[in-house]
Every structure is written in C-alpha cells, then in structure tokens.
Amino acid sequence: MTDRAHAAHAVGDEAGVWSGTWVAERLGVELTGDEALTGLLGLALRRNPKRAHLLVSHVLGKHVPQSPCVVYGHGVALGKRVRDLLGAEAAARAVVLGYAETATGLGHSVADGLGPAPYLHSTRRAVAGVARAGGFEESHSHATSHLLLPEDPALLAGDGPLVLVDDEFSTGNTVLNTVRALHERYPRTRYVVVALVDMRSPADAGRLDDFAREIGARVDLVTTASGTVRLPPGVLAKGQELVARHEAAATEPARPAAAPSGSVARVDLRWPRDVPDGGRHGFTAADRDRLEGALPGMAARIARALPAGARRVLVLGFEELMYAPLRLAHALEQTVGDGVDVRYSTTTRSPVLAVDDPGYAIRTRLVFPAHDDPDDGPGERYAYNVAGAGFDAVVAVVDSVADTPALHAPDGLAARLAAHVPHVLLAVVPSYVPRAPHAPERPSMLPEPLRGPAFSSYAPDEVGWLLQDLSEVTLEAPTEEREEAIQRGGAHYAESLPVEYQPSEQYQELFHAALEASAARLARAVGAVTEVVLAERSPRPVLVSLARAGTPVGVLMRRWAHFRHGLDLPHYAVSIVRGRGIDANALRWLAAHHDPADVVFVDGWTGKGAITRELAAALRDFEASDGVTGFDPEIAVLADPGSCVRTYGTRDDFLIPSACLNSTVSGLISRTVLRADLVGPHDFHGAKFYRELAAADLSRAFLDAVSARFPDVTESVGAQAKDLLSADRTPTWEGWAAVERISEEYGIHDVNLVKPGVGETTRVMLRRVPWKVLARSGAGADLDHVRLLAEQRGVPVEEVDGLPYTCVGLIHPRYTRGATGADGKAVTL
Question: Where is the TRSP domain positioned along the sequence (predicted)?
Fold first, then answer.
C-alpha cells in the first residue's frame, strides 16, 4: 500500500470534517505542507506551559483507534525506505532505536521493514537485573526520561548505522540529545532519523545538518510527510484558557443507563517461551522469526474467545507495550476476515483534553490509575476514543508486570472499559526477564582509602579517598583542546584534566574577601544540612562526598557533627562522572565496610540536577548488577538553587568560596579521571595529588574559617533546621526548566552547555571555553570573582531581569579552537 493510500485509509473524519478543525478555528492554528498531512494528523489541546496544541496521529495507533494493517504498514514502509537509502550491506549492520512510549511500536515496525536489524526501544521502567547502557533526557521533561536497558551490552557498540525512530520530528531536540549522548559513548559515522511527519519550523530545519558537521557523521532524515504548524501571536495563553474552560466541564463519558456493565474474561495467548514482549531489552531477527510462527495460533485463540456476532473489535495495548498488541491485532484482522472491523490503539500517560466534536481528534477519554507500579509513582493513565466508539469487544493486552490488583480495581482499566464496552478480554503477555549475565570475577579485596598527607593536604581523619593515585601520569590538556574534543564527541570530559588555574594576586584577594563575608552564612548552611541528615537519614551517618566539589562540604559536615553532637563520623570521597555513573568499586568497598542504609551522599551545590539524576540511575544499575540494596540516592547539599533535592542547607544561590578555586581549596586533589587505559574493571577511578602546589594551598584555611563561626551560629542553625524539617521540600526542578528555556532562547539547544548558579558558572570560567555569562540584575559581591574572570578571559557579562539563579555560565556552543580568536579570548557567534 502506498503512503498516499495509507493516508486515505487513515482519515477518520466524520462527514468530511478534518479532525483538526475545532482547534484551528478557535486558535488560528494552521497546518501547512504536504497534501497528505491532514490525513495523517489531527489536532487536540493539552495543558502544557510550552505548547497548548497536540498533533494527533491517525496512523500511529496511540490516541486514535486505527486499522492495524495501516499502523503496521506505515512503519514497515518507512523501514523499507531506510533499507533502500542505506544499501544492503549497511542495512545488515544497522541497529534501530525507538522512543518510549509513543514510538516503541513504530520503531519496531521500521526494524521489520529494514530487515534483520536488531531493535531496542528506550524505556521509563527500570528493570532489576539489567544494567543501564545509557540514558538521555527529553527536552520538555523534568525527570529522567529514557533508559536504555539492552540484555546484550554490545547491542549499541557496533559501528553500523543507528536508526532512530520517533512519531514526529518537531524541533529535533530529543533526537539531537540522544545522538549526542550515544555518540559520546558509542561513536559511529552514520545515523538515520525516521519519523511519520517532519514538522520542524524553518528555524529548526538547518540544525540537523549543523549537528552532523559538528560530530563528523552523516545524519539522514526519512519521513512520510513534512510540513509545519503556523501559530498566531498569543496562541499559548489563548490555548491554556481554552483548555481550562473545557477541562472544567469535561467528565468521563457516561455509560447509558440501560446498558449493563460489560463482562471481563481472560484469554490465554500461549505466548512463545523466550520471545521478548517487545524491544525494551532488545529484539533480534531470531526473536522475530519465532514470533511470526506463533502469531496465527495466538490470533485464532483470541478470535475463538470473542463473543458471537462481534463486528467491531479494539485491541488495546498498554503504554510502552505497543508492538506485541499491534502484531496480535494485525494477525486477528487477517484471521477474522472482512466481516469484522478490527482496530488498534494503546493507553497512554499523556493527559489530553477530550471534546466530543467531529472536528476534534480526541472525542472521549477514559481515566484510570497506573497499574504497573511505575518508577515515578502512581498517577492517572488514559484511553482515548474508546468510549462511545461502538466497539462490541475490547482485547486489552498488558504485560504480566501490569497484571496487578490496580488493573482490576473498581476504578481500574478493566472496570472503565467494561462500563462502556459489552465484552472485555484480558490478554497477558509475560514480561521478558533478561538472562542474568555471568558476574565478572572480582578481586577479594579492594584497596583501603587513600589519606593525607600521602594523598591530599587534608588530615588523615578528615576524609578517606576511594580513588587511585594517578599523580605520575600526565593528564592535563589545554582548555581549548579539551573543549573541542568533548563537543565533537571524540573524548569524554573525564578522560583528561584541565590545566590548573593559577589565581592572580587580585583574584586571591577576592577569594579571601568572599570567605570573610560569607563564612557565617556557610556555617549556618553546613549546620542546617547536617542537622537535617541526623534527624531524617541516620543518627550516625556515613558521609560520602562526591569528589571533588563535595569533599570540603563533607569535611565541614563532619566537623559540625563533632562540634555539636560529639560524633566522629566516617567520611569518604568517591568519583561520579556524568554519563558514566558512580564508581561501582567504591560502592562495593562501602557496602563491605558499612551499612548502605547509613550512607549519605554529599555534594556542594546543585545546578540543573544532572548529577542528582546520574546518581539515582547509577544506584539502580548497581543494585541490579550486584544485588546490594539500601543506598539512598538522595544527595545532601549545602545549597540547592535548582530545587533538585530534599536535603539541603539553603536554596539560595550564593557564593561558596570553595567554588572559586580548583585543587587549592580541595586538598590539592584534581577532579576525578575515568579512562579505560588507566582504570581497569577492578580499580577505583583516579585522581592526581598536586603536591607541587602546596605553597598556594588554601584548603585548611577555608575549612578553619568556616568552622570558626560554628559557635556564633548555633542558635540560628537550630531555628533554620527546625524550619527545614517542617517545610515541604519536595523538589520542583525549576532549575532544569530554566536551563531548558535559556538553552532555547540563546540558540544553544544543548542543556549540557548551560551551567546555572555561581558555583557552576565559576567552573565554566576555570575549566571550559565560556561564551558569555548571564547575571541577575543587581547581583552584588557574590559575582565579583566571576566578573574578574570574565574580564581576564574576554567574556561578556549580560545582566538579565528575572533570572532564577544569581548567574548562569554558557559554554561556547559551536566550539573549535578558532572560536576563541587569535588572542585566546572568547568571541561571539
């Protein structure tokens, strides 16, 4: 079937009315582009601070029930086009990656069309026993959005083309973030982006080519149709008002009074043993062959279980579980013949306004609670265009993890369906459990922590470093060379070290002035966060600082616990690396010597929360790989301006003087290093001890200046801790939202290049290639050192009203060594 024939078959318009008419007339939204667009897409509204309208696909099988041959046919056709584009040899080496939740079935169908390619889709469901091979964020999400959990760790490691499949290509942010994250870990020379529709604006259209040049790879785009959405001025506010007005009046469709509640029964699919339920952990050509052989039998069992006389049947999938229900629906469609109209759609997490109008894409909405114990907690789930659609029977397909009491509760999905459909059949697909990998042999003993004065200028009882000493290895590279390598994907930032910044006399004077001015404030924050930890986490916590910014804070918390409570707390420093996780060998050492439940991870401050997320994901992976439970991912920080954690001393964004310098305020220890030729599977991550900088060391001076203020702030710490313990400290992640906004407003399109807060901005100035600094209007002495660094490096400081942070540092977004200009100073784009 051709794409045009697919589109014609897909149109679900009533009396010739386009299902985007209602929104278009009220908001002035206009869909322009290929002739097939209105056949492929309708419009609906959702409550969203960034975009009120929603493009609703007629051919995806998510929100709109559709013929399964149409849904499957569109994906297979796209896969065949990719095969033609790549050629037989490259197609045979390709890997297909789909996006959760909307494109899991589409991506799988593309893989079927491509040929023997293995398939993997991202997931929002962490699975015990499966280590994470990667993860990335969706640009609009405030939580870790996508995990990659292949059973075979080598699935993504090849050099063949990577085919990324999403339902729509709107701005390109999610795809570019994915490629950037994966290219850093698994570099390759060719990518293909596949989507049903390309809806990029003219401003976004050139970014894909720019990005391809930046990473030195070819990136192609394959879509069924293309166009854009034209939005009139003020559409967002108008759309939000329209949603609020109609949502207040919207309710679940009432079941006709005369209609009895439908029946609910199970049908045994006899799903083939060892065939995965989808691509969450990978799906190979052999898996596909076994499934193809079993589909006719499973479809026949469903057909026999349908009520006599059923003429309209919906096969309803479940969130990420899209492919298995789609293939069952497709096989059922072929089994029952033309006399029965089989449709396919799935439940979803996405809240969308329902309006019962022929010109609106979402006519009805069923609401029910989540029933698979999701990682992000309970919440509402939805099934659209099911109620009132005239179905005689619904075959609800879920995996066994989701076959829970919540599914069968009075307000659960089964009951909601039975209130509107005479017959409900429940088909349960066994959730695939990957085979446990053989645990690698590990040495029986890990080395004891390094301590000063042999390693670091701290006293030996202040901190034990769970690191290996790489002091004799040359790891430093010029900042410009490191930045170019990092942004081009040729190196990870943890594989080398920046040359240590040596402060000028003027800068050192600023440090001492800042320390004098802020010592009491720091002491209050140290005392407050320590009291919260002792009250809520453990009466005798094991402090584990995230090296190196967390280490001075951990030492100060240890000192406060001794000063105020006479406690002699253990304190260690471990390495965590963005994109690589926490040092698993350090966790093994901690688990062997302490109760993991007593461990409290400590850092200096939060920026946008990337390390917070990294730690949570890494601990899940560690629990799955080692079976060790009890480590709490909640980080305790001195300052939480990004609202990323619950345990903090303050949420103010102020100058923490330890952020002003590098090793000379952190025990003369470098940032941590993770490089394959230096750090083996049984080694701790590495770091250097800069003994030669002893004359400039201010580490103990910083600690002593803050500790000296402890007696002065005891009373105020008690009041501050009491307020914190009684307050609602739920993270809002407002910092992440601000970073996303700044990334887009300044045309950076990469949240990793936006560093919010005084501490992170200082790091940009000391270690990276800065582009500009955004400073909150009226920010005072907290930014004196930033302004001095900016002047020294030729970096503009731009004052911004309403900035949620005191300042934000922007790394040069298109960096090559030429970007700094002939004099080594930053230049503007």
Answer: 277-407
pLDDT tens sequence across 467-526: 999 888 877 655 444 444 444 444 444 666 766 756 677 767 777 887 888 899 999 999
Nearest Cα to 777, choosing from 800, 761, 750?
800
Assess whether pLDDT exceeds 50 at residue 821. no
**Which amino acid is located at 518 in the chain?**
S
Integer Cα distance of 28 and 243 in angstroms: 15
Q: What is the dihedral of CA 102, 108, 110, 113, to 10 degrees?
A: -160
Q: How many angstroms separate the CA atoms of 739 and 177, rounded?
A: 14
**751: which residues sit within 8 A by CB, 6+ positions away?**
137, 139, 177, 608, 736, 739, 740, 743
Are the CB atoms for 451 and 463 separated by under 8 Å? Answer: yes
Chain mean pLDDT for the chain:
85
| Residue 606 confidence (pLDDT) | 83
The answer to whether residue 136 scores a pLDDT higher than 50 is: yes
Give bridge partners of residue 809 from the DSSP assignment: 755, 773
Does 780 have pLDDT greater than 90? no
Note the pLDDT tens digit of each residue in 389-408. 999 999 999 999 999 989 99
Whole-angstrom distance, CA of residue 760 vs CA of residue 673: 19
Asked whether the predicted pLDDT for residue 144 surpasses 80, the reply is no
The predicted structure's pLDDT at residue 153:
77
- pLDDT, average across residues 4-11: 34
Q: Environment class of residue 588 by beta-carbon count within 10 Å: exposed (0-12), middle (13-18) or buried (19+)?
A: middle
Give the whole-angstrom CA distance, residue 103 versus residue 193: 13
Which of 367, 311, 314 lies closest to 336 in space, CA to CA? 311
- Separation between Cα atoms, residue 196 and residue 236, nearest integer Å: 25
The backbone region for 804, taken as left when phi is positive above 0, alpha when psi lies in -120 to 50, beta otherwise, is alpha
**DSSP strand E in 130-245: where?**
134-136, 146-148, 162-169, 190-198, 218-230
Run of H or E including 807: strand 807-811
- Cα–Cα nearest to 391, from 332, 325, 312: 312
Helices (H) and strands (E) counted in the chain, each on its own, are 24, 32
Report whether pLDDT(154) > 80.
yes
Q: What are the Cα distances from residue 528, in Å, to 414, 534, 637, 638, 719?
A: 49, 10, 10, 9, 9
Give the three-class secondary structure for 283.
Answer: strand
Q: Quick one: pLDDT at residue 6?
A: 34
Question: Looking up tokens 């065939």, which residue turns up?
Answer: 275
Distance CA 175, CA 172 (A): 5
The pLDDT of 181-188, averaged and rounded, is 85
Q: How many Å is the Cα radius of gyration of the chain?
A: 28
Question: What is the signed CA dihedral for 237, 242, 247, 248, rounded to 10 degrees?
Answer: 90
Task: Residue 587: name the closest of 468, 466, 495 by CA.
Answer: 466
Question: Taking a C-beta distance cutoff of 8 angstroms, is the pair 194, 222 a contact?
Answer: yes
Of 686, 311, 625, 638, nearest to 438 (Cα)?
625
CA nearest to 262, candidates 395, 114, 400: 395
Q: If we measure between CA atoms, which residue out of 306, 502, 512 comes closest to residue 395?
A: 306
Give the burial class of 186: count Cβ atoms within 10 A of its Cβ; 0-12 exposed, 13-18 middle, 19 or more buried.
middle
- How many whole angstroms separate alpha carbon 107 and alpha carbon 192? 12
Number of Cβ atoms within 10 Å of the Cβ of 50: 11
- Region of poorest pLDDT, from 254-258, 260-264, 268-272, 552-556: 254-258
Separation CA 58–CA 326 (nearest Å):
15
For the segment 39-49, what is each residue's pLDDT rounded down to a tens digit?
A: 999 999 987 66
Task: Return the closest-CA partner of residue 167 out of 348, 394, 404, 310.
Answer: 348
Query: Which amino acid, one-letter code, is at 133?
Result: A
What local confidence, expressed as pLDDT, does residue 437 receive? 53
